[in-house]
Please model this.
Amino acid sequence: MNQDRHEGVDADHPEDRGTPVGRRVFLGTLALGALGVVAAPPLQRGLEGFLGSAADQDPTGLTGLLPNGGGFRYYSVASSVPRKNAGTYRLRVDGLVDHPTTYTLADLRALPQTRMVRDVQCVTGWRVPDTPFEGVRLSRLLDAAGVRPTARAIRFTCFDGTYTESLTLGQARRADVLVALRMRDKDLGHSHGGPVRLYVAPMYFYKSAKWLSGITVTDEVRPGYWEERGYDVDAWVGRSNGRDDEPTS
Ligand SMILES: Nc1nc2c(c(=O)[nH]1)N[C@H]1C(S)=C(S)[C@@H](COP(=O)(O)O)O[C@H]1N2
Ligand SMILES: [Mo]
Model:
């Protein structure tokens, strides 16, 4: 495990600033300065809530200040991420499929939506209980594309240009894996990976790739960004949170 490097990006709050990893205290101070906070740093929990809502740049971002609205940390391994909206967003499904398909946001919204309320758990220890996610089951998109018999895995790519993730085909077909359009009963904001992110409910949150733009069916697992840096491909939370399912196979 290379926990230090994963932990380091958690200081990477401002989306448009290049931030070397592993300089949390300094960058945290920088971020606070940029946001005009001159008082002594608040408690960690309050800091997360404050930065989370500020980073969202969403008129309804005030929810970040509500008792149950905080707890998330902003993560991006890319220093800047373009914004996509209903006009510019596209999701490409390709690879070992009979019908490669490109979806718009409207296309995805028109499909049946599944809502799930589970705990979010980052591998570095922070956790946000009872977080609603809503979107299209990944299995539905795979079925529509017609997965070929030689397929074994999925590779996910993101429009940040850097992050990647992977699942085995069996994992990808689980009912609790979504192409998510909404989180906490709001459209996904940019800072949380909007307009569309992957949501892998039974696994650590690094599996839930933000700013999802590509779903490629492959013949073997290609390790994702953090997996190339030592994290498990099979990132089951298991019973560690006392609630989520064990792997079924
Ligand atoms: N594209 C992209 N997706 C990503 C990440 C990232 O850096 N880039 N970080 C992962 C990690 S380690 C976590 S904990 C969650 C954080 O999601 P959040 O920023 O909505 O809290 O996103 C995951 N998905
Ligand atoms: Mo994470």
Q: What stands out?
A: The chain is about 20% helix and 25% strand. Residues 75, 122-124, 205-206 surround molybdenum atom (ligand 2) (CB under 6 Å). The CA atoms of residues 106 and 173 lie 23 Å apart. The first strand starts at residue 91 and ends at 95.
